[in-house]
Specification:
The complex is a heterotrimer.
Chain A (H helix, E strand, L loop, with lengths): L1 H20 L1 H25 L5 E2 L2 E2 H18 L5 H10 L2 H7 L4 H30 L9 H32 L2 H15 L11 H8 L8 H7 L5 H36 L2
Antiparallel strand pairs in A: 1-2
Helix pairs in contact in A: 1-6, 2-3, 3-6, 4-5, 4-7, 4-8, 7-8, 7-10, 7-11
Chain B lengths: L3 E14 L4 H10 L2 E15 L4 E5 L6 H9 L6 E6 L8 H7 E5 L11 H11 L4 H15 L14 H13 L5 E5 L7 H18 L2 E5 L3 H7 L2 E6 L2 E7 H8 L2 E8 L10 E2 L2 E2 L1 E5 L2 E7 L4 H11 L2 E7 L3 H10 L1
Parallel strand pairs in B: 3-7, 3-8, 5-6, 6-7
Antiparallel strand pairs in B: 1-2, 1-4, 8-9, 10-14, 10-15, 11-12, 13-14
Helix pairs in contact in B: 5-6
Chain C lengths: L2 H19 L3 H28 L8 H21 L6 H7 L2 H5 L5 H7 L4 H21 L5 H27 L8 H13 L9 H10 L3 H11 L3 H4 L5 H20 L10
Helix pairs in contact in C: 2-7, 3-7, 3-8, 3-11, 8-9, 8-11, 8-13
The chains are: A mainly alpha, B alpha/beta, C mainly alpha.
């Protein structure tokens, strides 16, 4: 049992080490995020010139929403996308080798991804903390409870995001190339997760679609918790919904994995 | 003037060096990186005439690929001069490209998803090959390399042997004056190797195309190279023909006598006050002749004393010679 | 190489690129869908903003739509014809630039020819649609002069994007992880999808004088919209494009001297 844990942790460590080589990419990542924020900020400032609040969101809310959601995106923009890793392994026929390894495939990929993410997580935390200290407009959650629930929510989000990426990765087996799927997934997720626009700002008629999809739980839910827009009870409900989606996606992921594996075994690798 | 002239050629590379291991190393790498200068080529001089078949030998990291890349214009020398057909390759890259053809053993020059024929057609347009020349060459090489069966298939569906043949034909398509071959027979089966070697020899003979070959396969060298350049640690270690290479580095040879009568027992031998090592098995007698001793003399001496049916001299295998040079 | 022969070669390469990109059919279609989705979500952002306000930086919704259309058009042309410039850093890092350098065609041209992407065509269509809707709904005049300058500015805009990307990609000869820097600079392009009047002067000046993305969308749009203050600048676009292409190409030629190929010695 201990040995197995070591194996997975080893993967994490290797990845983490490797990610240091790409220091330039982190700086660029941060700058890109800042740019995105600058654009959104400029746009919404224009809007709030004439209005005090939109659908319950005030200027400070919007600003905070932007900063936190972008920070989350830093964490969730998996640098070495699981899709690409999986797709590469499939293409190179390595998957046959991997299946022989006494290590669960998805779990291994998860730890690899986590290793990649460590730097990103650090940066995101730093970012949020700095913003909290520097900007007066930035709304900080007032209770420890909110902070804890926020962190929990982010963990769930990470897993949801990972499973979606992993599934996309397995699907690349059918499309032979990861690029299309990766972009499609990115487009869908970016839009539906509330990363660009808070879902509360969409008209009612459209909003119900979002509640039936897992995507809003990736960015929208955690940020709303951060903004303390939910009562305690509502928080609990949202967290539960996240949990459910997490489990659903995990099972779905395993199923897609098994189907792909069978397909590969049939095709001879 | 010679077709290819190289003068005091140097090439330096700057490589990153990572600092240490463990957490401290990781954090250090985050803030700074060290650069180290590696001298890959340290002063090469040589001339190659039109129509020569030259083999570049040397261990990995010796600088042969770097030299070839400078000859083809891919890399710019740090110092020194190169002249290929009167042009400086890195300065007149496109013109130089028209004079040369290149075959990389590891990578294809053709387009992956296109049928071979279409790749050829693209090359025709790119190199502005006249239709007549193009058709002749296609016919000639299709026949010589037996490519009829798979000209319509995309390159990604071909086996390594088939792909190499296509790459070779593609290199010759525009009637280049010089062909550079980098590991052309690596990973191929015997028939493919033979076919490719024959094609290269034929074309060199018929068209006087200069052949420059980089390889680790000694059979390639023996069959395709009149002249051999051995490069090690960025310097030229030997430049001459195969025979000379053997002469210079020969340590010892084996002379194998077949005796008329297997019952005759060899009783040892001394020449020039040296004990000659020997081995007898029935009628076969093997003598190990050191470099300093004349094989001819020794043979006549043996034949004077023993009834000999047949003699053959085994040269030191090339591999051994090369290995010796590499180890220096 | 003679002009006629060049175009003959270019045509053949174009066909080849189409074949290559449609080789993986399902993935290709997905890619297109993804592109459309990304465009749709960006547009939706604009539309959502306008449900809460009437003017953004002095631009009405229809005017913003035209601005958006101009930027899409320039981007579309660049993606269709010139997008392969993005592969330079990859080639330099993996040492696969060799094959390009061995061809009897100038490396830049070779690279550009080798990557025609149909995605650009789709973006261009989206751009045209935005423009049509914008002009029609906004009741803005459109004539021969504007048409000419629209085409001129869009093509110039494409070349400006190309040049900036090329300069960034050339850094790959000296730095290994350049892709991120390229992406970062390209992200600046997002700024000019919206009226640059909404930004602080600091940002605006960068986008006009240092990394002139404004000339790919804002100023041409101002010309289309008869905005007196800014339309004059649009006439400079072709000149800027030309000079940038020259600078970028020279820089690339310079960078080639530092090419390492793969391994660095064998």
């Amino acid at each position: 049992m201990r040995k197995k844990a070591d194996k997975y942790l080893g993967l994490l460590w290797i990845r983490m080490r490797a990610s240091v080589q790409y220091r330039f990419s982190f700086v660029s990542g941060i700058i890109s995020t800042l740019l995105q924020i600058a654009i959104q900020y400029a746009i919404w400032t224009q809007v709030f010139k004439n209005r005090v609040s939109i659908n319950g969101f005030e200027r400070a809310d919007m600003f905070t929403y932007l900063l936190v959601s972008q920070s989350l995106l830093i964490i969730f923009s998996f640098r070495n996308a699981p899709e690409r890793m999986i797709s590469q392994k499939i293409k190179q026929g390595d998957i046959a080798l991997e299946l022989i390894h006494p290590v669960q495939f998805t779990l291994a990929r998860f730890f690899e991804n986590l290793g990649d993410s460590v730097m990103n997580i650090g940066i995101a935390i730093l970012f949020v903390v700095v913003c909290g200290c520097v900007f007066p407009d930035f709304i900080v959650p007032k209770s420890i409870g909110s902070v804890l629930m926020f962190l929990l929510s982010v963990c769930f989000s990470y897993l949801i995001m990972f499973f979606i990426s992993a599934m996309a990765g397995y699907l690349t087996f059918f499309t032979m190339n990861f690029w299309g799927i990766y972009n499609a997934k990115k487009a869908i997720v970016d839009f539906l997760s509330g990363a660009l626009i808070p879902i509360a700002l969409f008209p009612e008629s459209v909003r119900w679609i979002f509640s039936y999809l897992p995507f809003q739980n990736i960015v929208y839910t955690p940020v709303m918790i951060f903004l303390e827009k939910y009562t305690m009870r509502e928080c609990g409900v949202q967290l539960l919904i996240q949990c459910i989606w997490m489990i659903v996606l995990m099972c779905l992921n395993e199923w897609v994995y098994k189907v792909s594996v069978r397909r590969i075994s049939v095709n001879g690798g | 003037m010679s077709q290819i002239v190289v003068n005091d050629l140097h090439k330096d590379f700057y490589v990153n060096v990572s600092k240490g291991s463990g957490v401290t190393g990781m954090v250090k790498s985050l803030f700074s990186r060290e650069k180290k200068t590696v001298e890959a080529v340290k002063g090469l001089d040589f001339k190659i005439e039109e129509g020569e078949m030259v083999g570049f030998l040397g261990p990995n990291g010796a600088g042969k690929s770097t030299t070839i890349k400078m000859l083809t214009g891919i890399l710019t020398p740090s110092n020194g001069e190169i002249s290929v057909c009167g042009l400086t390759p890195c300065k007149k890259r496109q013109q130089n490209a028209k004079n040369i053809g290149v075959v990389f053993g590891q990578r294809t020059q053709l387009w992956w998803d296109l049928p071979v024929k279409e790749s050829f057609l693209l090359l025709k347009k790119m190199y502005e090959i006249e239709t007549g020349t193009y058709e002749d060459n296609i016919a000639y090489f299709t026949d010589l390399l037996d490519m009829e069966d798979f000209l319509d298939r995309p390159v990604r569906q071909l086996s390594l042997g088939q792909r190499m043949r296509c790459d070779l034909a593609a290199a010759f398509l525009h009637n280049p004056k010089i062909i550079y071959l980098d590991e052309p027979t690596i990973g191929l089966d015997i028939t493919s190797k033979k076919r490719i070697r024959e094609c290269i020899k034929e074309t060199n003979r018929k068209r006087k195309t200069t052949i420059i070959l980089t390889t680790h396969d000694m059979a390639d060298v023996e069959q395709l190279a009149d002249r051999v350049m051995v490069i090690n640690h960025g310097k030229m270690v030997y430049d001459g023909d195969m025979a000379g290479l053997q002469q210079q580095y020969r340590r010892s040879r084996n002379v194998v006598f077949t005796l008329k009568d297997s019952r005759v027992a060899f009783t040892g031998f001394r020449m020039d006050n040296q004990r000659i090592e020997w081995q007898q098995r029935a009628e076969e007698l093997i003598l190990k002749v050191p470099a300093s001793v004349s094989a001819g003399e020794m043979i006549s001496l043996v034949m004077a004393q023993y009834p000999v049916e047949d003699v053959r001299i085994e040269e030191t295998p090339i591999e051994d010679i090369i290995e010796e040079i590499y180890n220096q | 190489m003679a002009v006629r022969k060049f175009f003959s070669l270019y045509g053949a390469m174009l066909l080849k690129n189409m074949r290559e990109s449609t080789a993986y059919k399902f993935d290709f279609i997905l890619g297109i869908l993804a592109h459309l989705l990304i465009q749709a979500s960006s547009l939706l952002l604009v539309m959502t903003v306008y449900t809460h306000t009437d003017s953004m930086g002095g631009f009405t919704f229809e005017q913003s739509l035209i601005l958006y259309g101009c930027s899409l058009l320039a981007t579309g042309i660049e993606e269709f014809f010139l997008h392969n410039v993005w592969s330079i850093s990859r080639h330099v890092n993996m040492g696969t630039l060799d094959s390009v350098l061995l061809r009897p065609v100038k490396p830049i041209l070779m690279l550009v020819m080798d990557g025609t992407s149909i995605h650009g065509f789709i973006l261009g269509i989206c751009g045209v649609v935005c423009l049509i809707v914008g002009f029609a709904q906004g009741g803005i005049s459109f004539g021969g002069w504007k048409c000419l300058w629209l085409i001129l500015c869009s093509v110039s805009g494409a070349f400006i994007i190309f040049s900036i990307t090329l300069i960034m990609e050339t850094l790959a000869f000296w730095f290994t992880d350049v892709v991120n820097a390229v992406v970062m600079v390209d992200n600046l392009r997002q700024f000019v999808r919206y009226p640059i009047t909404i930004y602080q002067p600091f940002i605006r000046n960068i986008l006009i004088f240092i990394i002139p993305y404004s000339f790919t969308s804002f100023f041409p749009a101002a010309l289309m919209l008869d905005m007196e203050e800014y339309s004059y600048y649009a006439y400079f676009t072709p000149l800027i494009a030309l000079s940038m292409v020259i600078i970028a190409s020279l820089f690339f030629q310079f960078g080639l001297k530092f090419y390492h190929s793969s391994g660095g010695g064998q």
